[in-house]
From TrEMBL:
GO BP of this protein: AMP salvage; purine nucleobase metabolic process; purine ribonucleoside salvage
Localization per Swiss-Prot or TrEMBL: Nucleus
Source species: Drosophila kikkawai
Domain called Carbohydrate kinase PfkB: residue spans: 35-337
Function: ATP dependent phosphorylation of adenosine and other related nucleoside analogs to monophosphate derivatives.
Protein name (Swiss-Prot/TrEMBL): Adenosine kinase
Entry similarity comment: Belongs to the carbohydrate kinase PfkB family.
Length: 345
């Protein structure tokens, strides 16, 4: 980091979750009717899972939630605190304290809305070999309300930001807040970035997703998320490039800034899809023994991307940094990093 960035230029909204991460046998997934690489919201039958991980496995606590993860990674690479501001809702409990401490020590400027009578959200991260399955109990995260963004101090933070990032996961919580941030970005001609987040978002939350999409300048997703979107739209879903082209061609409020789609596909190349081009960016393949767990790889990719994007770097530099960050995270447990970043443009 040579240039000093203004504080608070990047605002993110999402679900702050305390990740409870543990290596478990496949039987554990079956017990909770889960599959490898699932990303689901907890139902009643899943509620005992969190305590069971703490009691029966060597569970680790990590600051989680997709957007919070991405912003932590961006902060790590930038090496300058408080470039990113994060909004989300927590309870008033020890998990919230752990979350805030971990997020702030990562350089993130967190402004949580606090709900006294609801526990802080948790996410069970179940690691089976190189697979990871997520079961999120949003709890307090589900209670985020737009009035938190309308408090004068918070409103100033939103108004003064230069870049905005929101996950598709937040569509399940508070679409009015997303629309407010999107409208602010649009009014000020500032980039609004969003993530498809998980297949279930396209399957069950397509209406709020389509409402915000005209504001979205850059959309991220992996192959499963892009295919789920295509299927929900009744598009052919085999060809990722074709899906990306259709995504960027959908209605957009500010046609002077054409939409960009960035689709990841594991160890296959990242696709950068613009109006008239599709570019591929190869991913450095890791040896099997280097892969600790893939949890947070997608979040890390976005974090790496954002760290360069807020510095005005070109898209190819942003994507290469995304690939660097994802590759680093995969070698560590959960969405964690170690040492100083070694990304070279």
């Amino acid at each position: 980091m040579t240039t000093t960035l203004q504080e608070g230029i990047l605002v993110g909204c999402g679900n702050p979750l305390l990740d409870i991460s543990a290596i478990v046998p496949l039987e554990f997934l079956k017990k909770y009717a889960m599959k490898e690489d699932d990303a689901i919201l907890a139902e009643e039958r899943h509620m005992p899972i969190y305590q069971e991980l703490v009691d029966g496995f060597q569970a680790e606590f990590l600051a989680g939630g997709s957007v919070q993860n991405s912003l932590r990674i961006a902060q790590w690479i930038l090496g300058q605190p408080k470039v990113a501001v994060f909004f989300g809702c927590v309870g008033q409990d020890k998990y919230a304290d752990i979350l805030a401490e971990k997020a702030r020590s990562a350089g993130l400027d967190v402004h949580y809305q606090v709900k006294k009578d609801v526990p802080t959200g948790t996410c069970a991260v179940l690691i089976t070999g190189t697979h990871r399955s997520l079961c999120a109990n949003l709890a307090a995260a589900n209670n985020f309300t737009i009035d938190h963004l309308e408090e004068p101090g918070n409103k100033a933070l939103v108004d003064n930001a230069l870049y905005y990032y929101i996950s598709g996961f937040f569509l399940t919580v508070n679409p009015p807040s997303i629309m407010k941030v999107a409208a602010t970005a649009h009014a000020n001609q500032r980039p609004f970035l969003m993530n498809l987040s998980a297949p279930f978002i396209s399957q069950f939350y397509m209406a709020p997703l389509l409402a915000v999409l005209p504001y979205v300048d850059i959309i991220f997703g992996n192959e499963a998320e892009a295919q789920a979107f295509a299927e929900a739209q009744k598009w052919p879903s085999e060809d990722l490039r074709e899906i990306g082209k259709r995504l960027v061609a959908m209605d957009k409020l500010n046609p002077s800034r054409p939409r960009i789609a960035i689709l990841t596909q594991g160890c296959d190349p990242v696709l950068l899809i613009q109006q008239d081009s599709v570019q591929e960016f190869p991913v450095t393949k890791l040896a099997v023994h280097e892969i600790v767990d893939t949890n947070g790889a997608g979040d890390a990719f976005v974090g790496g991307f954002l760290s360069q994007f807020v510095q005005g770097k070109s898209l190819d530099v942003c994507i290469r940094c995304g690939n660097y960050a994802a590759g680093h995270i995969i070698k560590n447990p959960g969405c964690t990093y170690n040492g100083k970043p070694e990304f070279v443009e």
